[in-house]
Amino acid sequence: MKTSPISEYEVPGRYYKDLLHLMVVGTNSLYAYWEISDRRRWLVSQHFECDFGAMPCVIRLYDVTHVLFNGHNAHTCWDTTVPPETTHAYLHQAGANRSYIVDVGTYTWEHEFIPLLRSNCVATPKDSEENWGEPR
């Protein structure tokens, strides 16, 4: 069996499917990366009758600590607008020992947020050190 050297493999720039992943960077920082498929871009542009690239790209960060999240019952949320072709962002609004979910979406002309993708839920670590095995 002939094997190819690793240098022949390239990581694709796009996977052509919808995805949104959220990761914890530190106590107060998160990292999100996403891809919106061509099909979803086309559907959104047809619905709003404008070019997808002309629409604002908005990242909405939800604090869902101890909540069975239904899309409307977060403790609080923050919106960050990024350039339309952005595919990743660091979010520094997080707090320690909290749980978060992110939506990537857009605004309507009436400034109503329309989610297009939803991430996984992540929990940030505590900001205090606890020694293993010691009573609290």
Question: Your description of this structure?
Answer:
The chain is mainly β and 136 residues long. It has one domain: Immunoglobulins (Immunoglobulin-like, Sandwich), CATH 2.60.40.10. It has one helix at residues 38-48; strands at 19-26, 29-35, 57-63, 76-82, 88-91, 99-107, 113-118, 122-123. The strands form two sheets. Strands 3, 4, 6, 7 and 8 form a five-stranded antiparallel beta sheet that branches. Strand 6 (99-107) and strand 7 (113-118) form a beta hairpin. The longest helix is centred in the first third of the chain and has 11 residues, at 38-48. The protein is flat and about 60 Å long. 16% of the residues are buried. The mean pLDDT is 92.
